[in-house]
Amino acid sequence: SFVAGVIHPWRVSAFERLLWRACRGYLVASFVEMPEPMEDPATGESITWVIFLISYWGEQIGQKIRKISDCFHCHMYPYPESEASRADTMSGLHSQIQDLSVVSWAPWRGLGGHARTPLSLTRAGHPQVLEETEQYLAQVLDKVVLALPTWRVQVQKMKAIYLILNQCSFDVTEKCLIAEVWCPVRDLTQVQEALRQGSYKSGSSVECFVQRIPTSESPPTLIRTNKFTAGFQSIVDAYGVASYQEVNPAPYAIITFPFIFAIMFGDVGHGLLMFLFALWMVLYENSPSLRQASNEIWLTFFEGRYLILLMGAFSIYTGFIYNECFSKATVIFPSAWSVATMANHSSWSPAYLATHPSLTLDPNITGVFRGPYPFGIDPIWSLATNHLNFLNSFKMKMSVVLGIVHMGFGVLLGIFNHVHFQQRHRLVLELLPEMVFLLALFGYLVFLIFYKWVKFSAADSRVAPSILIHFIDMFLFTSNAENRPLYRGQVPVQTVLVVLALASVPVLLLGTPLYLCCRRHTRRTGHPAPAAVGEQEPLLEGQEAGNSVNATKEDMENGGHSPDAEHLDFAEVFMHQAIHTIEYCLGCVSNTASYLRLWALSLAHARES
Predict the structure, then answer these.
(1) Can you give the pTM of this predicted structure?
(2) Overall average pLDDT of the 119-124 stretch
(3) DSSP assignment, residue 120?
(4) Could you tell me which residues are beta bridge partners of residue 51?
């Protein structure tokens, strides 16, 4: 018997040696190089292959040869044993080669359903047929491109349907599917109508129906978004999803997040470039080339196009405040500082100007400083040698003020949660201590900043005390004789504020757990009031109470929970409150320090640009 095939030239020596050892010489092998190189179908490399023909004795030897050939990735071909069969095979191969050179086959007409037909041509007509074939294939691909979006939608719908069906369970008779889902109350009518239409169109003898299942579990949170709010909601969800019926902070983040970014990136030129880039994505958001891009980084930018748009707009606004356009000051209004007045008052001579490259403008001299700049920072500060010191003080204080206002606003949002869930005790035992702790320490810092701005002017600015030293002395319950007080009785006031802040911590830690424990003890010793039965109302039109979907108004408004429902595990409540207290107190300190990054990154952006 014979085995024929081709092998890579680099593997011939090892292949021949292994064949000889494994078959113990019961074979005759012949190796011949191809006259012309051929392309490797796997790698596309042009290789001069080696043709081998092996004659062997015994079927076991043949199996060994075939296994070794497979291990060496040889391409095997059938080799007839009789001379007549080999002659027939050779003539057939020659005929196929001749046919390939003079015959072209029309492609399958897949869209029209016509079978292919061989076209016998002369050598002169062969290039024309190939050109027509390429044109036809191009037309087919053009039609496929038009139909591809529809096919993709159909496939996605089928995958979604089968995914939902796989999550359903069979009933006892294994003839119906049962799905337990959470559904918004206002969408129940649409769900029921969709089930009815599905039953009608499928011709099912059993109509689909919806029935409410009583449960004590808290429903999941559903937040409806659109293409504008989806990016902001994703940022909020990255930090945590609000519980059912809690206040969603995402609408407020639509303003605060871009504005805080703009504080760090305040530049008219850079903000305009960002705004125009986002505006281009918004205007062409329906373009398939933008939506269906495979680059993950690009998709991240595209999904946040409205976020980038607002960040660019706010950066333009803060850029006007900083008076920076590509890190260069712009003169929109005349400067409020008069160099001519200072020169006339000081009688600067040419010799003085030659020896003093830096000149000082004294605002205490009448006419040198004529009032604040109409909007933003005066452009003359870009020429000053103390420009960085001035921006350091301004941006650091601004970051602290905005950060504490932002944190206070977040704490005040808890009022809506406590009132909605009828947990008014948390207003006194949680919200009040939180605000006392925040305002007594960091709210007082904001007060010191504004008080110093108002009290001290250019005339006495050199003797103004340091707010930072006062704030440190406040926690140490000491006073510094070298740092004069801002107002009378400052040390006693600061002592009282620190004591109030420290006293609010145990109230925040123990207030809610002790209140819940006392209320549970009162309920056990007293007589609980009988539970009121709410009136059942059908949620869907055309359905009676007791059938299909029914819920009380209380269930609809409170998600199936009574407002008095409390978790009475004291250890768990205390542990939760302890974690909340530690997180809040440490968060006030760390977040205030974190807001200083607005100042640092803003200066870095101005310096590096």
Answers:
(1) 0.66
(2) 41
(3) E
(4) 6, 32
